[in-house]
Design a protein that fits this description.
3 helices; RNA-binding; alpha+beta; Large ribosomal subunit protein uL16; rRNA binding; Aldehyde Oxidoreductase, domain 3; 28% strand; four-stranded antiparallel sheet; 7 strands; ribosomal protein; elongated; 138 residues; structural constituent of ribosome
């Protein structure tokens, strides 16, 4: 599972996800990419599930890149605990995704293989996505 090795502060505030993404919106490594169309918190488990789907479908052909990293801690208080007594412990890690962000990239395979791998990976994610190609960006 993806998570940071160390962080400066153990707990973070929730923050906001308004607006479109400005960084990480163009293909940088591969010819095909999966782009987010909605804002969300992608958990490390969801990223790992999509990654495994891509790896299984590619079967040693081509190469893939993960363009998001879960570096935001999400805290949770234990079940049946009364209010107060401070903030809960870190439960899991999320990546903050805003519309336009490239989540995964694939290169070195044919168009239909890349499309199918990214389509299957998109089923593992909680948001609407679209598959983009390098030709569309030019």
């Amino acid at each position: 599972m993806l998570m940071p090795k160390r962080v400066k502060y153990r707990k973070q505030m929730r923050g906001r996800m308004k607006g479109k993404e400005t960084r990480g919106v163009e293909l940088a490594f591969g010819e095909y990419g999966l782009q987010a169309l909605e804002p969300c918190w992608l958990t490390a488990r969801q990223i790992e599930a999509a990654r495994r789907t891509i790896v299984r479908f590619l079967r040693q052909r081509g190469k893939y890149w993960i363009r998001v990293f879960p570096d935001k801690p999400v805290t949770r208080k234990p079940a049946e605990t009364r209010m107060g007594k401070g903030k809960g412990n870190v439960d899991h890690w999320v990546a903050v995704v805003r519309p336009g962000r490239i989540l995964f990239e694939i290169g070195g395979v044919s168009a239909d293989v890349a499309h199918e791998a990214l389509r299957q990976a998109s089923y593992k994610l909680p948001i609407r996505t679209q598959i983009i190609t390098a030709e569309e960006q030019v």
